[in-house]
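Budget justification note: compute hours in this period were largely spent on complex prediction jobs such as the one shown. Inputs:
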Amino acid sequence: MRIKLSVNGETHELDVEPRTTLLDALRDHLRLTGAHAGCEHGVCGACTVLFDGVAVRSCLMFAPQAEGTAITTIEGVTPGPGELSPVQDAFCETHGMQCGYCTPAMILAAHSLLAGNPNPTREDIVEAISGNICRCTGYAQIIEAIALAAERMRGDNRPLDRTP
Amino acid sequence: MSEAPHHFRYVATDRRVREDRRFVAGKGRFVADVDLPGTRHVALVTCPHAAARIKSIDKSRALKMPGVHYVLDGTELAEATQPLLAGLDTPNVPRRPLAFEVARYSGEWVAAVVADTRAQAEDAAEEVDVDYEPLPFVLDAERAMEKDSPLVHEAHGSNVLLDKTFVWGEVDKDFAKSPHKLSLRAKWGRSSTVPIETFGVVAGWDPWHEILDVHASIQLPRYNDQIGAALKIPVSSVRVHHDVDVGGSYGVKRGIKHTVLCGYLARRLGFPVRLIEDRLENMRGGDAHGPERLFDVELAYDDNGIVHSMKMRALENLGAYAGRSPFQLGKPAGSIVGPYKINSVQYRAIAVVTNKTTQDAVRGFGAGPTNMALERAMDEVAHAVGLDPLEVRRRNMIRHEEFPYTIPSGTEYDSGDYHTVIDKVLAGDTFETLKRQRDALRAEGKLAGIGIAACLEPSGGNAIFEALLNPKITTSTFMDSCRITVDGLGSITATMHTTSSGQGHETLVGTVVGEALQMDPDRIRVTRPDSLNSLPSGTPVASRMAIMLGGAAYRAAQKLKDKLIAIAAHDLGIPPTRAVYEAGNVYDRDDPSTKRTWSELVEIAHRNYHRMPPGFEPGLAVSDIYQVPTGGKLPTPDGRVQMYPCFSFEFHLILLTIDPVLGTPKIVRYRLGHDCGTQINPKIVRGMAMGGIAHGIGAALYEEFAYNDEGQLIAQSFMDYLLPSSHEVPPVEVIDHETPSPHTVLGQKGSGESGYLGAPAAIANAVNDALRPLGLNINTLPLKASHLADMIAEAQKS
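Corresponding output:
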């Protein structure tokens, strides 16, 4: 069947089998390979994308169900070739990853959190990424990355204004 | 050989990890992202019985399904290929990608369907009609040892693949003279590393070049050798692409059977073939389970809590087939006494096959379970003599001034400062505060316990456990390599020769080469040539890459420096001893204004051969193939061996509560003391330790590949096999200490298995401390909440 998907601000027309998951449509049809398959039953969160700004699992949804919604993938939050968003840069600063497989999903979960909560507590961050399993890091440096990104995005780490 | 840390420019400084940039942008290149034109997809037909004879396979309906190209069965594959490499000398226990005549565990692959899409292949796999005759089966390791047990491999005549007893030192004498003995049975449940990326492979055969191109999510020593041997083609016809990012491994990404299957299909069918496991295939038929081990430990000790001797029997349930997995009983021999001065040891290692999923290597290669058994026993000694478990450990530990220290099994520990690490973890009144906190929790009616564990992380690798358990193997090296080239305009490229699964090896090479050449590591390109263009690499196993790849990179850079010094000295007309290298330039010590710059040296080497020292090769290309420090010797006839070169140390201290009704354990405080020598990149080291702890929490409390009585795996998804989420992993205070190794180029030791090796032991000790007031004792991992709740309820009733 033919469907229209709005991904990262562009509309694509795809010819898919009705049973095609959104994840497979993004990866195989649009070659947006930043979303990853981990468990394909909605537990690990490696396939996370933003659905009108909210983090959802693209493995649990059929592609035709995603028509009419603005989908954002990791490719959509990367500002440009070789450029990083503040969240992406914070993950690099704290080394909030190892193998990189769950990382795009973690970053999208962080974007989703920070869009609605610019000043999250540690508990808020833990809750926001609790649906994303990372097997490498033990989460500490991921939590620090998101806290650092929040701080930077609030502007808290601007140089101190020392004018009297 | 080691240099003092304060001399470093880049090593041990807080630098970013170069790999991270591509990962945060979703631009890692994982195997599922490899898109070769014309690739077809594989799905698998699996055996539904714990054991069954395959009477017939009817492919006709499947072959008529849309998009289907081929259905391969085990008979065709067995005729065309060699069995997969086995570690032990067990010729009657062949392992093949597809079951041949008999399937030996539920989920074992019986046939493979190739179709245009994965979905079509899965649809057709359901239409392959296999006629099975169910056979008797055995799941339990002790039952498998009994004479009347069903045999997993009839031709072997027994389920026992290994039963070897080592006696290191005067065990009987030490036991006789010790006033006290204690015995303990402990069980490590079947779990694994379960990476979020499943295993995958894409294989394509080019008949015009006669090359099999392999892209895989792999972490396996001698992968290309094994592919060539199994497919009966020269290894020079196998091209493994090392530039595939591996989405986590921690030991288990060893899909040789997947690769041989796809390699055969690619050659047979003439187009690329891809098999990416789904989660069920990964957990059931992917042959990636970890140790399931039963320990019987006896300690002989005195009134002061000094342990004089140990007898340990370790019984491993291998599952249905064995590749390298039995060697996981061998590596622990190299740290069998942990950080303690136990005078003598008897170690009996038994490995049996059962009708469960086949095991492969898991983080620590068998040392985690062994540490757990030893550390549980040390705690019990403390309670038996009425001392604090911490005090007993301090009394038994090797002291800093006693290094290098040779343990009874013949391995020399390189260096360590265990007492200082512990002191740092307990800084101030940490321990007393923790005890008060525990007692306050208990006074509120809660179950609370303190757990400690100390253990070593043998690092640097050495395949010598192979020779220890299989005398037909005489491998005494486990090398790694680096090549450095300087191009005609002076840019530097260094190589590594294997895949990585998150360990930051490109950063490692860049940092070490930059350190040696005194140049910004970010200016050093690091590449991964394919296997046909590679030097030897033992791959990222055994906590070895910082030591071995780091060592090779450092030594290659030293060779480059030596060449630059010789070129400059010759061109300046001074003896090389007067020439001083500094950040790429070489000057005359007696007249520092007389020098040759980097650009001039590059110019000479690449274009001015007339200015080169006589007999020198033109250009600037060097390489180093590095032998394992302290390696090169086979085990002695009485089974003594230098296992690994370097020994990192870790000390865990935790406070844990258990909900008295639900049985749910909760870690309230976690402190880790960690000494892995020089940390080449501290961000990476911390991540390894934290990730290891999270993995250890999983193994201790949540994760188990449980089977029902029918031999069906009942943890087949992430709904039943529980990986720790951000909620289950507490904040951990990591306290670093640095005791450099004397054997390595920068004093570094390994850290890839840190955290995981001690966390389960510390948690088990904390749980037992919490349950002790109820008179309960538990030594079976995982310590599942449901089981704890039942035990507590039963105890409170009586």
